[in-house]
Write a structure and sequence with these properties.
The protein is an alpha/beta fold and about 325 residues long. It contains 11 helices and 10 strands. It has 2 domains: about 190 residues, 3-Layer(aba) Sandwich (D-Maltodextrin-Binding Protein, domain 2); about 140 residues, Periplasmic binding protein-like II (D-Maltodextrin-Binding Protein, domain 2). The structure holds glutamic acid (GLU).
Amino acid sequence: MKVKIILMTMLSFLVSSCLFLNNDRVIKIGTGSTAGIYYPTGKEISSLLETILHKEHVKVDYVSTGGSVYNIHAVLSGDMEFGIAQSDKQYLAWNGFGEWEKKGRQTKLRSVFSIHPESVLLIASLESGIYKTIDLVGKRVNLGNPGSGQLGNAMDVLEAYGLSEKNIIPEYLNASEAYERFLKNRIDAFFYTIGNPNDMVLNIVKQNKKINIIPLDSVSISRLVDKHSYYVEVEVPKKIYPTVLDTALKTFGVKATLVTSSDVDNHLVYLLTKAVFDNFERFKKSHPSHENLTVENCLMGLTAPIHPGALQYYNEKNLTRFIPSELIKE
Ligand code: GLU
């Protein structure tokens, strides 16, 4: 038994050393559209990780991608070491639902921590005459690109209102394309699941484009939250978009989370977790949507087991008491 433990320890040391022996290694973090918050979040995590790895000459790359669903696929296929993904997608992948229905449970998925809350926003131009979700009928509406988190959320909203893609003129654009088309009046409205405040909405307002952010009614929100355990009711305060909102916006939301795979070496995940939480005040300043983060709430909203490398850090800092026991499996 003792020999086995010594051998296992030597093996794990060798595996973690390999990370540093290969000077050409590029560690990739999947983010989202450059118009979103995942991108600057990935940039900050990369910079913190690169600082901790500086002597090793390992590069860390934050890659603009299609979003949550793309990132989970990339992490599980080994194309990327880390990815930012909505908590609902993490749940669906782990349980083999939604986009993973055909593939089944994604048991290699691991969580590292959660980040900012995201809300499902439906933004419409004033001239479109859209004031309620039901007004979307017959309009040009961007639901989101395949690979994004918002596509599934937008479909769930349509369903809650008894609508489908057939009742609208659907578009499947990424957030940057949606932004361009919206400003040129080539789409009437778009869905975006995003933290607040976000630059896309602020930039649209700066361009003097008149918009409405459409609230969801409480019956539909209850329907969504009751049907899907991973959704929560949220309110976006008026002060976040003072020139657009007359009152707090009622909608539903999820959390941004950082995911990885059980194939990614413990030491790398340990270092990334350490890089972020040892510099938590700096991380919080990296985007206004991170302002209210606490270490404790960064351990909530996760479904996949915590990666052992992250767990090592949480153990060291006595933080495991904040983690639901079912996430501590290995
Ligand atoms: N929630 C979006 C997605 O999963 C991305 C939002 C962002 O980039 O901040 O695709």
